[in-house]
Amino acid sequence: MKNLIVLVLILTTITAVGQEHSHRSSRPLTFPDIPGYKSIKTDLHMHTVFSDGNVWPNIRVQEALRDNLDVISLTEHLEYQPHSKDIPHPDRNRSYKIALQEAKDHDLLIVHGSEITRDAPMGHNNAVFIEDANPILQDKAENAFAEAKKQNAFVFWNHPAWYAQNPDGNPILSEFQKERINKGELHGIEVINMTDYAEESLALALENNLTIMGTSDVHGLIDWDYTEKGNHRPITLVFTKEKSIPSVKEALFAGRTVAVYNDLMVGREEFLAPLLQASLKVESATYAGNSNVLEIELTNITSSDLLFQNESAYTFYDSSPVFEISAGETKMLHLKTLERKSAVDLKLRALGCFVAPKIQPVVTWTFNPSN
């Protein structure tokens, strides 16, 4: 009898442990804050079975927790409902409510959003920070945007280079979108959607003062669509005064963002440059023996591999001017300063980063070597 009780206890413990699920990932997304702002990791474009996705809303929350995200939005297509026969839901707010309930005990913010889904030239657009998705479902696209503005939504243009709507794979800013911008009804644009980075979308963002966005637009599982292929999900880093929904909304309207996908970072220089500067930690800077070769130890504290080219006044001793520092790794550089300096500028061009089409930022680290 005693042995039977012990066996039951063991089986009960194993079952309980097996039923637990972990919110930890092997490579969570990590980025440093920049001076004056917190770096908030967001994914504001994803789908569930409540539009054309393949998972229940609680899965999106669990995936976000595993990826160490701070903010997500489930942006279901308002008009496109391929699962409606199996999952009829007259309330277009339903997936948001389920996600909100799933996230209530976690440090994850859920932003209420929906996708206004039309053919070109209107295209697909996400409205986030909405109050009620139902009245945004309108016959005319103009009325949908007007209702989103009435709800003080932040609206951004999704996958503008999508070849299904633009066969050349280049975004076309239509008269409809120009009117939306002029009326204050369109505020951002995806420069990274899924695996696609569109330089032309970045150009449109800069020309029309639109906020730069990056999103996963995930329909299946993050693991299947990204992780198992060796990729991170694309995200938008939003630079906020605090971690709160009002602060994230304020920062998006102000355009304080950088879009990130793996080792690709895209943003305005005023935000991308300080992000890169904070991403490399100078562990030490010491001259080697009696030489004039300065040994600089740098650690990449982000979850992205970073590729640089030396733009300093000094050349390297024993390596190519182009080098990579993998995520979380430390690298030793040997800089030939020709004479011992009390202060040294290390100037690097970030090759995987863009502040405009084909324009890469150059970032400077200044430090005082120890002899």
TrEMBL record:
Cited Pfam families: DUF5001
CDD domains the record matches: PHP_HisPPase_Chlorobi_like (cd12112)
PANTHER family reported in the protein's UniProt record: EXONUCLEASE, POLYMERASE_HISTIDINOL PHOSPHATASE N-TERMINAL DOMAIN-CONTAINING PROTEIN
Residue ranges occupied by any Polymerase/histidinol phosphatase N-terminal domain in the UniProt entry: 42-120
Species for this entry: Maribacter cobaltidurans
Coiled coil: none
Record's protein name: Sb-PDE family phosphodiesterase
Lineage, top ranks: Bacteria, Pseudomonadati, Bacteroidota, Flavobacteriia, Flavobacteriales
